[in-house]
Write a structure and sequence with these properties.
Number of helices: 4
Low-confidence stretches: none
Radius of gyration: 14 Å
Structural class: alpha+beta
Strand order of the largest sheet: 1-2-3-4-5-7-6
Order of helices and strands: EHHEEEHEHEE
Largest sheet: 7 strands, mixed
Shape: globular
Distance between the termini: 25 Å
Number of strands: 7
Mean pLDDT: 92
Length: 150
Amino acid sequence: MKYRKAKITDVEPIHALITNYANKGLMLARPRTLLYESLREFTIAEDRDRVVGAGSLHIIWEDLAEIRALAVAPDYAGKGIGRGLVDRFINEARELIIPRVFALTYQQKFFEKCGFKIVAKESLPQKVWKECVNCPKFPNCEEIAMIIDI
């Protein structure tokens, strides 16, 4: 398994991974335009030239970053790829001297295994919610807010 920063040619495979889970209601959809705009935030997991996992670390503020759009190909699930991506994002935040990383997720157990704790959504700064108004589930969000101090 190889982990690397995403390239422009990875947008379609990343979009396919996310769309697969979004269509099942397991994560939020991401339009291609957003993927292109935030491509530099993405890291991918690659196996034999195939994108099998992806996610991004988005900086919110001087002391807070968010893991977004974390997805692993179904046939690679349970093989530690998601954990490998989360570990890379936590290390990246550590290098940037960002002390806290959070995720808004439907996958509570996975993030608990990675050391995250549930927090009240209201405890996160308002800046976190700027993109929520564009979400089809707003204001009835069912995602769980989870955070880790690093």
